[in-house]
TrEMBL record, chain A:
<feature type="transmembrane region" description="Helical">
    <location>
        <begin position="154"/>
        <end position="180"/>
    </location>
</feature>
<feature type="transmembrane region" description="Helical">
    <location>
        <begin position="633"/>
        <end position="650"/>
    </location>
</feature>
<keyword id="KW-1133">Transmembrane helix</keyword>
<feature type="transmembrane region" description="Helical">
    <location>
        <begin position="352"/>
        <end position="376"/>
    </location>
</feature>
<keyword id="KW-0813">Transport</keyword>
<feature type="transmembrane region" description="Helical">
    <location>
        <begin position="200"/>
        <end position="220"/>
    </location>
</feature>
<feature type="compositionally biased region" description="Polar residues">
    <location>
        <begin position="1"/>
        <end position="10"/>
    </location>
</feature>
<keyword id="KW-0472">Membrane</keyword>
<keyword id="KW-1003">Cell membrane</keyword>
From TrEMBL, chain B:
<dbReference type="GO" id="GO:0019646">
    <property type="term" value="P:aerobic electron transport chain"/>
</dbReference>
<dbReference type="InterPro" id="IPR000298">
    <property type="entry name" value="Cyt_c_oxidase-like_su3"/>
</dbReference>
<feature type="transmembrane region" description="Helical">
    <location>
        <begin position="178"/>
        <end position="197"/>
    </location>
</feature>
<keyword id="KW-0614">Plasmid</keyword>
<dbReference type="Pfam" id="PF00510">
    <property type="entry name" value="COX3"/>
</dbReference>
<dbReference type="InterPro" id="IPR013833">
    <property type="entry name" value="Cyt_c_oxidase_su3_a-hlx"/>
</dbReference>
<dbReference type="GO" id="GO:0005886">
    <property type="term" value="C:plasma membrane"/>
</dbReference>
<keyword id="KW-0472">Membrane</keyword>
<dbReference type="InterPro" id="IPR035973">
    <property type="entry name" value="Cyt_c_oxidase_su3-like_sf"/>
</dbReference>
Length: 658, 201
């Protein structure tokens, strides 16, 4: 489609309807951007869209970039904390019968490590990357439901703080990250530790569900004119599919944790076989969430890889349609795999065979993705920079993790290595290889957009090799020690088993891997303070986030871009076609149609508000109080209702009216 | 990067009803995730029911009458709900105000009867897993009912202020109609599960 088509009769009503019918106050029209010069336009838009100054202003921010930055930094802090958990565990395991920490603390350490990495790092950081990038990539000025987005951040922070303060008080969950009953039930887990697990889940899932809905609506309704379904960037597709997986998977874990806390707190018997309940029900519900969770973490990473590869291969992605269909197929298939986490529970044979088959089937769309990326690189003229190095690391590590995955999908092998370090090795290859390496590549790739400065390429290469060697040194030997029979989640082992040397080697690798993150942190800080200036588009990339300045202004785009090609900036090298006619004195953005992205409505985006923070405090306080008494839900209802009404009640801003 | 103006958006309207509006899609998203929650809770009930041959664990059958009255009230409420929707789309203030008041009352009425549904289950949540699941299912739906009735009342008040004269507010009324349909629709399978499935066995 050429940009001229967009001005045709079909797309835009030629004249403004002066008065809408019905009981509506006449629209207070304001100045428009049409014909305005660049400096004047910037002054207007900056005044309208900026985050207010002062502490209250900062806490009221609804700018998706501000919220995303907070998310990214918070998730990075939790990565550091979860990493420190791992380091302490590896020091304890570096030799047989070390007495550094006892079994009770060790149980809390591996639970906090898993919970932190899954719920406080991996999911939030991939969603945060989406919060930052999706509105820029689809060419809009803010995420849909910006206040809900702000609310999600505050709920997430309070959930994370709740878990870690509990850890500091020796009250952290100690029942593993999936907290199976009966171990976590009222009989075997007295005290508050399992309740902390259950409610921390509720906080983080509320937060990611909110982000998922906001992301879906942003992609469906706020795309720039002309960005029809076939022109949506692959990263945006990945975030869209991920958000759908979140919407259908996360309720399962909220149901699980709610059932658990009901059993523990008010004496229901849902998981109690003595009174007609069932312990396996917990595992079914948990893994109905838990397996899609892997893809919630992995799919955004594939989107990042699909963004990085064409830029450094210097050609558009090979097999765009195949990649989109693979993403969707993986999203669907991810719901058909949960039982392969339960092969050791004695399920009927036919059921087990079905889940073996579907576990192997998901390798097909994932394989299609890998081959499309390889073909893009093969046909292009690859420029090897740090982001691409991390993509290569991803290929290598993720493929190994995928191969052990196919092995584990077969029931006899799974039974043999169940609960051993082989499984630990497998899922760290899949999760770190499949998600963390692409994330690190993405950090180098988009850092210039976020900060306006470049990270050091030399330090980046050092970082990559340190991380790659450290990771493989730490996790590859775990396959072996697992096959030798070392169980996971043991705080020590006797010297006679002969696992001492290999564990020392693993610990050394883990330390190296940790140091690579120290170097990364230094590179981040150094780059943000002293890095060379990046300019709008340092990599000469083709998607819309590179069309605006680095870092982007509060309003993202001075004028909404028009999309004519899958890589719009490569197609329109002389001048970017843009749309005009939006108001500049109110937060106006463009709503378009779902499939074709035809311009449809000029809608107002919500103004900054302190109420999302207050609502999050009310919700967080209720969750916290609820581990002590069920009446918390009754007492908490009033503050929650008041803050929500405060949130939605119009304050008379132009954004609230019309 | 240089820019060239290629399209003019100034003639576009400032609000739209139904699937044209982002809020409608957001409501649909929340329905999808809450609906998943309902489906999983119902699935958990059926999983337990087929796990135990003596389900419902020799508990007395629930008295279905309060639940049946709630169901009838819900179904009746759909008629004014959709009449309200038509007026909301026309943006006509007086019928919308009347409709919202009617819908507030038709929300409070089943909530009152709901109060009598809990004792009519004839079992406590801590008696056995069957009792637990009945209370969970009924509680889950009641949470949605309370939330939506609260939302309807606030919106009714809002439409009596000067803020009501806005296309977006009429759009909000449309989304409120949409969500009430969801509350009614999710009740039907839960009603059958709570009151009629135990009578099958």
């Amino acid at each position: 489609m050429s940009s001229a088509d967009l001005t045709s009769q079909r797309d835009l009503p030629p004249e403004r309807k002066v008065s809408a019918k019905g009981d509506i106050a006449p629209e207070h029209d304001g100045p428009r951007d049409t014909g305005m010069d660049d400096a004047g336009l910037h002054r207007w838009l900056e005044r309208t869209w900026r985050t207010p100054s002062g502490i209250v202003g900062a806490l009221s921010s609804v700018d998706h970039k501000v919220i995303a930055r907070r998310y990214l930094i918070t998730a990075f802090v939790f990565l550091g904390l979860g990493g420190l958990n791992a380091v302490v565990m590896r020091i304890q395991l570096s030799g047989p019968q070390r007495g550094l920490i006892g079994p009770d603390l060790y149980n809390q350490l591996f639970t906090m490590h898993g919970v932190t990495m899954m719920f406080l790092f991996a999911v939030p950081i991939v969603q945060a990357t989406g919060i930052y990038l999706v509105p820029l990539m689809v060419g809009t000025r803010n995420i849909a439901f910006p206040r809900l987005n702000a609310f999600s951040y505050w709920v997430y922070v309070s959930g994370g703080a709740f878990a870690w303060v509990s850890f500091a008080l020796n009250m952290a969950p100690d029942v593993g990250w999936f907290a199976y009953v009966p171990l976590s039930g009222p009989e075997f887990a007295p005290g508050k530790r399992a309740d902390v697990w259950a409610q921390m889940i509720t906080y983080t899932e509320v937060s990611s569900l909110a982000v998922a809905v906001a992301t879906i609506v942003t992609v469906f309704k706020q795309r720039a004119p002309g960005m029809s379904l076939d022109k949506i960037p692959l990263y945006v597709w990945a975030m869209l599919v991920t958000s759908f997986v979140v919407v259908f998977a996360m309720p399962a874990v909220m149901i699980t944790s709610t059932f658990l806390i009901l059993d523990r707190l008010v004496g229901t018997h849902i998981f109690n076989p003595a009174e007609g309940g069932d312990a396996l029900l917990f595992q079914h519900l948990f893994w109905f969430f838990g397996h899609p969770e892997v893809y919630i973490i992995f799919l955004p990473a594939t989107g990042m890889v699909s963004s990085i590869i064409p830029v450094f291969a210097r050609r558009p992605t090979f097999g765009h349609l195949g990649l989109v269909l693979s993403l969707i197929a993986v999203g669907f298939l991810s719901f058909g795999l949960w039982v392969h986490h339960m092969f050791a529970t004695g399920l009927p044979k036919l059921g087990a065979s079905f889940f073996t088959a579907s576990s192997m089937m998901i390798a097909i769309p994932n394989g299609v993705q890998i081959f499309c990326w390889l073909a893009t690189l093969w046909d292009g003229r690859p420029v090897i920079r740090t982001p691409l190095l991390f993509v290569f690391g991803f290929f290598f590590i993720f493929v190994i993790g995928g191969l052990t995955g196919v092995m584990l999908a077969s029931v006899p092998l799974d039974l043999q290595v169940h609960d051993t370090y082989f499984v630990v090795a497998h899922f760290h290859y899949v999760l770190i290889g499949g998600s963390v390496f692409p994330l690190l590549g993405a950090a180098y790739f988009w850092f210039p957009k976020v900060t306006g400065r470049m990270m050091s390429e030399r330090l980046g290469r050092w970082h990559f090799w340190l991380a790659f060697i450290g990771f493989n040194a730490a996790f590859f030997p775990m396959h072996l020690v697992g096959l030798w029979g070392m169980p996971r989640r043991v705080y020590t082992y006797p010297a006679e088993l002969g696992w001492g040397n290999i564990n020392l080697f693993i610990s050394a690798g883990a330390l190296l891997f940790f140091l690579s993150f120290v170097l990364f942190t230094f590179n981040l800080v150094h780059g943000a303070l002293k890095g060379t200036s990046a300019g709008n588009n340092p990599w000469d990339a083709g998607t819309l986030e590179w069309a605006t300045s680095s870092p982007p202004p509060s309003y993202n785009f001075a004028r909404i871009p028009i999309v004519t090609h899958i890589e719009p900036l490569w197609a329109e090298r002389e001048a970017l076609p843009v749309a005009t006619g939006l108001r500049v004195d109110a937060r106006e953005l463009l709503i378009s149609t779902v499939a074709e992205a035809h311009p449809d409505i000029r809608e107002k985006s919500a103004a900054p508000s302190i109420w999302p923070l207050l609502a999050a405090l009310a919700v967080g306080g209720t969750f916290l109080y609820s581990i002590f008494t069920p009446w918390a839900i009754v007492w908490g209802a009033a503050p929650i209702a008041i803050t929500l009404i405060g949130w939605f009640w119009p304050k008379g801003d132009p954004e609230d009216e019309e | 990067m240089k820019q060239r103006a290629a399209a003019d958006l100034s003639g576009l309207p400032t609000f739209g009803h139904g699937p044209r509006s982002p809020t409608w899609w957001g409501t649909l998203g929340f329905m999808a995730l809450e609906g998943t929650g309902f489906a999983l809770a119902a699935g958990a009930y059926l999983y337990l029911a087929q796990s135990w041959p003596d389900w419902p664990l020799s508990a007395p059958r629930p008295n279905h009458w309060p639940g049946t009255i709630v169901t009838i009230l819900f179904i009746v409420s759909l008629v004014p709900n959709h009449i309200l929707h038509r007026y909301a789309k026309q943006c006509s203030m007086v019928p919308v105000r009347i409709g919202l008041m009617v819908m507030s009352l038709l929300g409070i009425a089943p909530l009152v009867v709901r109060w009598f549904e809990f004792p009519a289950l004839n079992i406590y949540w801590d008696t056995n897993a069957y009792g637990s699941m009945l209370w969970v299912l009924l509680g889950l739906h009641t949470t949605h009912l309370i939330t939506d009735v609260g939302d309807t009342i606030v919106l009714t008040v809002l439409m009596f202020t000067r803020h009501g004269y806005s296309g977006r507010r009429f759009g909000d009324v449309g989304d409120n109609v949409f969500y009430w349909d969801f509350v009614v629709l999710t009740w039907i399978p839960i009603y059958l599960l709570i009151y009629w499935v135990p009578r099958l066995g």
